[in-house]
Design brief:
The protein is 81% helix and 0% strand. The chain is an all-alpha fold and 365 residues long. Helix 11 runs antiparallel to helix 14. It is elongated and about 90 Å long. The two termini are 40 Å apart.
Length: 365
């Protein structure tokens, strides 16, 4: 029963299990090498090796570089301060500590990649190794420990069940599109007077968070490409298409917060709901194709529904009662029409970018 419960809990957690395995292997290998080289504080190598292993090779590369550069900078500056300011008594230790931390803290505030530098300088100045062997020896030891951990962590990320960022881009973009399709369905129900505003807000918040995650993973994928760690396709066109679709959905959501008033409701609501439903189905199909690594299903159905709405809108513009609508209602109708018109081009961009991404991804490592 315990095994069945655990299997149920871990079902669908392949990415997390592989990450856990890489972190474990990285920590064990770093420990073995630290023992082999008889590093005085080898646990720092183990800490670093585990920290460097991230969800993708690109993120591991950035984490390792940041940690190594921050360590080298902090150790070097901490050693210089230690040599320049004798700090045998508590007062002078406080002076040396201030001189070491203040500029490095400012640097870390300006460049987040140097966050480890002030900590490293403090360790060089105040650790027992720094007091017994001197600042230079303490700095050299710290750099060797962190360097070993960075090397092991990155090597394990690259060699043990590596997670390429472009695969994460595809899966995250798929989740984002599926969530946008769900949000469109809720928007269509709200336009018909049956939606749940609280659920729409929740879906919108989740969509925004997922798009931020997609942007971050896209930067990791680009880092892998620039570093020649991957021959995967450029993810930016796909990410840009997903981002534009979300912007369109925000306008549609605001314009569809309530049912249209007459005479717009009689003429436009049914075509608008049909268009939103067709677009949602297209997004679901594209999401499934990205997850499976195949070409998207096409956007012909969504374009036909948009054509139907455009024809209804043309008829509405020419109808005499349209001129008598309140300004607020007129603005809603034209905002909805404008966003749906933008969606036409953005759906084409999504179809092209998702198709190119899937085809090139199938032929690249």
């Amino acid at each position: 029963m315990a095994f069945a419960w655990l299997r149920t809990r871990l079902s669908g957690r392949g990415d997390e299990l592989r990450l856990a395995l890489r972190m474990t292997v990285s920590g064990v290998v770093a420990f073995a090498l630290a023992e082999l080289f008889r590093l005085e504080q080898g646990y720092w190598a183990v800490f670093t090796a585990i920290i460097v292993v991230q969800a993708s090779v690109g993120r591991s590369l950035k984490t390792g570089i940041d940690r190594l550069l921050g360590t080298i900078g902090g150790a070097a500056y901490g050693a210089l301060v230690g040599l320049a300011l004798p700090h045998a008594d508590p007062v002078m230790r406080g002076v040396a500590l201030t001189a070491a931390v203040a500029p490095l803290a400012l640097l870390a505030a300006i460049r987040a990649s140097f966050r480890i530098a002030p900590v490293t300088a403090v360790i060089v100045l105040l650790s027992t190794a720094g007091e017994s062997a001197g600042p230079l020896a303490a700095a050299a030891g710290r750099v060797s420990e962190i360097g070993l951990g960075c090397l092991v962590g990155f090597a394990v990320s690259l060699l043990v069940l590596p997670a390429r960022a472009h695969g994460l881009v595809a899966r995250t973009a798929s989740r984002s599109l599926a969530l946008q399709a769900e949000l469109l369905g809720e928007t269509s129900r709200r336009l018909g007077g049956a939606g749940d505003p609280e659920r729409a807000r929740m879906l919108n918040d989740r969509s925004a968070a997922l798009l931020r995650q997609l942007d971050m993973i896209g930067r990791e994928a680009e880092r892998e490409r620039r570093s020649r760690l991957s021959g995967a396709p450029d993810a930016e066109p796909l990410i840009r298409a997903v981002r534009r679709l979300r912007a369109d959905l925000l306008v549609i959501g605001r314009a569809s917060a309530a049912p249209l008033a007459e005479p717009g409701r009689a003429r436009l609501q049914a075509p608008a709901e049909a268009a939103l439903t067709a677009i949602a189905e297209t997004l679901r199909g594209t999401a499934a194709s990205l997850a499976a690594g195949r070409d998207p299903p096409g956007i012909a159905g969504a374009l036909a529904a948009l054509d139907g709405y455009a024809a209804a809108m043309d008829g509405f513009r020419q109808a005499p009662p349209a001129a008598d609508l309140p300004d607020e209602e007129t603005e809603r109708i034209f905002a909805l029409s404008f966003a749906l018109q933008l969606l036409r081009g953005d759906l084409r961009e999504l179809e092209a970018s998702a198709g190119a991404f899937a085809r090139r991804r199938a032929t690249k490592v």
